[in-house]
Amino acid sequence: MANSTETYSAKNISVLKGLEAVRKRPAMYIGDVGTRGLHHLINEVVDNSIDEALAGFANKIVVTIHKDESVTVEDNGRGIPVDMHPEEHKSALEVVMTVLHAGGKFDKNSYKVSGGLHGVGVSVVNALSSWLKVEVKVNGALYFQEYHQGDPVAPVKEIGKAKKDESGTRVTFMPDREIFKTTTFKYDTIVERMRELAYLNKTISIRVIDERNGGEDETFHFKGGLIEFVKYLDESRIALHKTVYIEGEKDGTPVEVSFQYNDSYSENIFSYVNNINTHEGGTHLVGFKTALTRTLNNYAYKNNLVKEGKITLTGDDFREGLTAVISVKVGEPQFEGQTKTKLGNSETKSAVETLVGEKLSEYLEENPAVGKNIIEKCLRAAEAREAARKAKDLSRRKNVLDNMNLPGKLADCSITDPEHCEMYIVEGNSAGGSAKQGRDRRFQAILPLRGKILNVEKAKLHRILENNEIKTMISAIGSGFGADFDESKSRYGKIILMTDADVDGSHIRTLLLTFFYRYMKDLILSGKVYIAQPPLYRIKKGKEEYYAFDDDEKNEVLKRLKVNGKEVIHAELEGTEEANIKGVLISRYKGLGEMNPEQLWETTMNPETRTVLQVSLESAAIADKIFETLMGDDVEPRRAFIEKHAKYVRNLDI
Question: Are 591 and 504 in contact (CB under 8 A)?
Fold first, then answer.
């Protein structure tokens, strides 16, 4: 027991009033204070507008990013109440904006269902903004209040009139630079979430305006809802039939499902609860899978599409090449799992299973050609599964996938606790050699890969298992893959992809990410996959040495060293990889192999000085769409993607 002359008494107990707790520990409320947390602010405000739409009172939402990085979210809902709150003795608007867990979503008479995972809402946005302004149109009047770091500047006041048929809320906020690492919003990140919300809520029109850099302006409204969502996700694939749509309510739970089979070999099922993307699934997903397997199996045998005893169809066979979106509205959702995005309500499983089973049976009876087409696809999947099983069994007999026999090219670490171990997957033997020499052998393992791995987006399972580089990765990681994957068996707490900063390196990284997304997704969901950030430039002046990870950082260093930027640009245009200007040596790295072990350790592998990017799945549906666009067979969507995003490219080697 420690000795102390200080007393521990009531004066040591801190009480954080109002929204102080949010400003003190922001990550507890929005996840982090980086890019992800910044964009979460917009989502929290939009969630309030979506709740109004779900309740049937709003059909338009406008999100505007202003030139100064402030954001406005406006809807045509009922407007936040402005009358006096009976308990707080101040305007209900001020209560909503300044009190945690205050709002209509906690009153089931106001909202039967509501979005937002934690219920902290707009008050947290207010707390984490340097300033916030809210305008409310209600009862023929326009009301206004302004806040500074969560505190009201003045009471709510009426500032004008509104038309009798006009109502709604307009919130404008400026993220606090004292809180966030960056306050620059990414247009694409906002657009993808708003597009997703528009698909999930077919009565809503969502417009996104970006007043910066020339001004982007897009409006999302999809009358077809989930049907159009599935078509969008499968845009780069060949559909085998018309999209199936199921809608209904069972035991008070509204259920919407849309799906279709395509010519791919991957399963793409995306589930939502009250517009929340449930990455980890849950009872609604289990209910859908159970209904799909049972109904299709019964249909196949009833119509003699499968011969008894010849082959047995499994759940995996019924889901190969399937793209599906499941959306349920649950009054009191219970979330669990690592990221609190796994639904736990047992009654939801029964509701989804019963409704999908009934409606799908009716659909198949009315559309026998579609039913036959689906079963034929499933039979081909079963045959491929059998071929893959035989290939896997053969591999196991040869000890290729046996974790007791690690691949020879793996330079393992001495520590065995996965939580303290990390494995670098390195492009090329040359860079792998430098990494092996430069690493900390206690906790860093190195796995060099030779060339580009197989594009798993286009390959059947047995072909994937025959690829040497993929087998090596599976063996080194030790947690299996695909349906047999068990994340808890991973031998490493971090898996870091380290490739060259050029086109080939980007391609290899994309191939690796495609593999992890398709066959080891839980590693990404649990935050164990990272991307190394090797420097692009080395700048040396006398004994001083600097590393720059992009052109902006390079220019900052050169500015400090008082080097003329025009001379550097001229040298780059001449194609030189090394320029000596006024005694400053500027080297551009073409690959990891050009760095010696000490430089590689110092810039890319030392945990105290390196920069690594954690791979996350903000939206699994959008991630799937991007992987299929970039790695699928259809060229046109890939060309359109490149043309749209080319202007954002900063470093490209040709």
Answer: no
The count of structural domains within the chain is 2
| Active-site choice (44, 52, 317, 427) | 427
Q: Is 107 a catalytic residue?
A: no
pLDDT band at 348 (very low <50, low <70, confident <90, very high): very high
pTM attached to this predicted model:
0.73
Instruction: Kindly name the residue from 502, 550, 551, 553 that is annotated as catalytic.
Output: 502
412 is catalytic: no
Whether residue 486 lies in the annotated active site = no
Query: Which of 265-269, 315-319, 403-407, 415-419 is predicted least confidently?
Result: 403-407
Residues 308, 215 share a domain: no
Q: Per mean pLDDT, which of 32-36, 446-450, 650-654 is the most reliable?
A: 446-450
Nearest to 233 by CA among 512, 629, 630: 629
Model pLDDT for residues 596-607, shown as the tens digit of each residue: 899 899 889 999
Task: Give the residue from 543, 515, 409, 371 showing the smallest Cα distance to 452.
Answer: 515
Tokens for 592?
């990891």
pLDDT attached to residue 404? 44
Q: Is 504 designated active site?
A: yes
Q: What pLDDT is stored for residue 106 in this prediction? A: 45
Quick one: pLDDT at residue 543?
83
115 sits in the region (left: phi over 0; alpha: psi -120 to 50; else beta) called beta
212 and 256 housed in the same domain: no
What pLDDT is recorded for position 461?
79
- Return the higher-pLDDT residue of 540 and 130: 130
Measured CA to CA, the distance from residue 245 to residue 241 in angstroms comes to 12
Choosing from 74, 75, 353, 500, which is the catalytic residue? Answer: 500
Domain that holds residue 158: 20-220
In angstroms, the CA 370 to CA 368 distance is: 5
197 shares its domain with 323: no
Catalytically annotated residue among 216, 235, 504, 567:
504
Examine the fold and report which residue of 347, 374, 392 is the final residue of a domain before the chain moves on. 392
Q: Is 597 exposed, middle or buried (0-12, 13-18, 19+ CB in 10 A)?
A: middle
A 10 A CB-CB count for 89 gives: 8
* Residue 410 exposed, middle or buried by CB count within 10 Å (0-12, 13-18, 19+): middle
